[in-house]
Design brief:
membrane, about 40% helix, rod-shaped, about 150 residues, 6 strands, two-stranded antiparallel sheet
């Protein structure tokens, strides 16, 4: 009679235990989903701000006020959105009104540098993870939008 080859039950259990230990120790490195989700949210907000700024600028250009600053004669808001040189101003009445949900879902804080506003997560995150919006400085310069801290949220 031939002897059948195979693994014993104890050998199989030992291999499963070893694989379980490896999975428990290695999984957190590969499954850092919260950090990835926060980084994606920041990139999404940056894109939403850029899109909203472009739409508002287009409406300002149609109305012929894309080159006017707040103090200029003929300056006006675009559909209730405060603008500076045709782009949304760095305020809650500017970019905050242009991006739907920005005032409700994010914390907007004016920056120490003039004309810049910072959007951070409402809670549970460091301030290093944020999107900054710097309004247009003149008629030839669009706003600067940056997402910071996307690697360590």
């Amino acid at each position: 009679m031939k002897r059948q080859g195979g693994f014993t039950l104890i050998e199989l259990v030992v291999v499963i235990v070893i694989l379980g230990i490896l999975a428990v120790t290695a999984a957190p490195k590969f499954l850092n989903l919260q950090s990835d989700a926060r980084a994606s949210s920041l990139q999404g907000l940056k894109g939403a701000m850029a899109g909203a700024a472009g739409i508002v600028y287009g409406k300002a250009a149609i109305e012929g006020v894309e080159s006017l600053s707040t103090g200029d004669t003929g300056h006006k808001d675009i559909e209730g959105i405060a603008v500076e040189f045709g782009y949304p101003a760095a305020t809650s009445a500017g970019i905050g009104a242009a991006v739907v949900g920005l005032n409700e879902d994010w914390v907007l804080t004016p920056s120490s540098s003039a004309g810049t506003i910072i959007a951070t997560f409402p809670s549970g995150s460091t301030d290093a993870c944020h999107v900054s919006y710097t309004q247009a400085a003149d008629a030839d310069t669009p706003p600067v939008i940056t997402a910071a801290g996307t690697d360590d949220c």
